Multiple sugar transport system substrate-binding protein
Amino acid sequence: MSGRATSGRDSGSDRPDCTATPSSDPAADDEYSRRGFMETAGAMATAGATAGLAGCTGGTSEGDFLWWTMRGYIPEEEEAIRNAAEEFEDWYDGEVNLTTDVVTWNQVFEQWMSAIQGQSTPNVSEMANEHAVDYGSSGVVQPNTELFEEYDDWYETPSFWGQYEDDVWGFPWFIEVRNLYANMDILEDAGHDSIPETWEEMVHMAMDVVDETDKTGFVSSGSQDTGTGQALYGATVQSGGSFFDHDGEQWSVELDSPTSLFSHLWMASFQEEWDIGPGGWAGMDGTDAEQLYRGGDVAFMINSGDTANEMASDGEEVGEVTELSTIPEGPMGTNTAFMGGSCLSAFESDYTQHDVDDEQSMEFIRYMTLPDTMEGYFPEAAPNFLPVREAQDEIQPFTENTTDIPDEWIDARLEQAEDTARYGISGPEQNAPFLGDLEGTTDAYSIAISAILGADEDPKEAIVSQANQVRETITDEVDYDLGENTDEPDLDDAPDELQAWIQGDGDTPQIWNPYE
């Protein structure tokens, strides 16, 4: 599995005098891939042999405390988080000499493994809950169940994001969501003066853009890419589906269900049926899509908040004509969007560089997620950082906006935060140690849709193949066999709410259906 520790520290063993030295690369892509986590997992023994050689610090002193964050991409955000963390030294009732190390997402997987092998991990690290659950089931990170249960105002998806076998292994820190970006100048040229409220309106408006202007109607990433899978998953949930389920005893895979077939065909229709996507879309990752939108060449884009932050901070002309909104309402009447984000997890003392008690690590997690503390860095992280529970809605910049980000953008992000879903988590309403691996080996479940868009692969065959790959991976990790599916899904078995799209009834555009 993705983060398995293969050795622990005996209670009487000596602590090493060095720690893994994470490096910061602000130019690196913040939209990381867990594929790198998988690739290094197979080489853990090698990493363990060399881990103790990196980052020697020459010893530790009483009160030393180390935490890692991946927030090194926006200088102002990093500085604000560093400053807030440093104030823990005065907040905590005891001696603390705190160090903040910044690691980039594309490097942290190897750094975690090396630090575990070298018994030199930080006391607390930013992670995604998939990592925390994996490490927790391995005995590498501590459960934070008691701290988590002190609060009862969690948003829905964060409320079970870190749950596994009756414990919570990652304490939700922030979430970030996908929104719809709309270039109002382009829409006005196409005869529209408002943003779409439904899928139908979005597709029709995008068609008008193509017909009436020289611009592109819609863009998201379309390649085998993390962002592609995220957009696809959002569409699947809005169609009433999920990628997984859990009946209390066993997991099941829904990636090749009729609803999943529909969402793959719906997304492919942007290129194959409605011709509203850009040329070369099948080869575009998230950065390519963002550049196309920021160049003023496309009416609609689904993307995360980093793009909005950069457009506002740089005073870009396209930002002046952009409206940010929740994802348009799908067939099931929801505006659900994919949810990203991070948690904070405390490593077990058997693996940490600095020997501190469990209470101190938990108090640091508590401190960093208190509304009063978050007010110190959330304005610099807007609109990418969003609350994980209701009490955090009452902090800046959600009540008093002191940023360069338009109020309407922040309001749209905050509204979207209450209606989110995360692949692997939302259907079963719990986590599992193998989910991080699966996200990596499938590029966020984008293998099938990229094969359909870019290689003209049969959609039914593509999604069944991807689903069986997932079943095989899960079977290798659990004590039951999910088996292989040999039955292809049928659109006739899709929910009734989807049939208007399948048949093209009334004002609903018909999806691409190569099986008619």
